[in-house]
Amino acid sequence: AQSVSQHNHHVILSEAASLELGCNYSYGGTVNLFWYVQYPGQHLQLLLKYFSGDPLVKGIKGFEAEFIKSKFSFNLRKPSVQWSDTAEYFCAVKGNNAGNMLTFGGGTRLMVKP
Amino acid sequence: DGGITQSPKYLFRKEGQNVTLSCEQNLNHDAMYWYRQDPGQGLRLIYYSQIVNDFQKGDIAEGYSVSREKKESFPLTVTSAQKNPTAFYLCASSIGREGADTQYFGPGTRLTVL
Questions:
Q1: Is residue A100 over pLDDT 90?
Q2: Mind telling me how many Å the CA of B14 is from chain A's nearest CA?
Q3: Burial class of residue A114, CB neighbours in 10 A (0-12, 13-18, 19+)
Q4: Between chains, do A90 and B90 touch, taking CB under 8 Å as contact?
Q5: In this complex, which of A51, A99, A102 lies closest to B98 when CB atoms are compared?
Q6: Region B65-91: what's the mean pLDDT?
Q7: Could you tell me the sign of the dihedral formed by the alpha carbons of A108, A112, B4, B8, in that order?
Q8: How does strand B76-78 pair with strand B104-105?
Q9: Is A88 or A29 the better-scoring residue by pLDDT?
């Protein structure tokens, strides 16, 4: 069975600080990886995704993530956060024999202080 | 305006009562999903349906039931057998039954059992 770990449950940063949120998964085969974001009062929405090719994936709002296969990781990064990045972030993985079933991590709640 | 709608936004239920949460999509997606979101646990899959008149149990199906009589609708019933039903429920849909497509989420229903 596949599983996803997000080790940082709560992160507090000041504006302009750099962000890195950890995501590790356990699955032995080919994976598709996702980061979703849930802004306060809004729908869960896709931030970025990795299917194949370049392991460095760029998403919306200046976010990027790097797939490191040897480390089973897909960490989310942003060089300079803004107050509007305050949200909960979820990493998700789909194994190649899991149909369209996503397994989510527990989420990381980010608060950016103005 | 295409998307996924869930109703109601807030729902209160007395113990021992069944309650049905609505999910409708006009994206012409084949697959639909129900997740439960609890603080610190991310999203956990309750049921999913890859095609009309077919659905499968997810990781935490006990105490829930679904139907998929129409492509655009996937209602979830929380039965009295569900021991801890208070949670935030999210519905999602995706294009195809296989492949690495993206899931799109509705706004959610917050269920509180009194």
A1: no
A2: 26
A3: exposed
A4: no
A5: A99
A6: 95
A7: positive
A8: unpaired
A9: A88
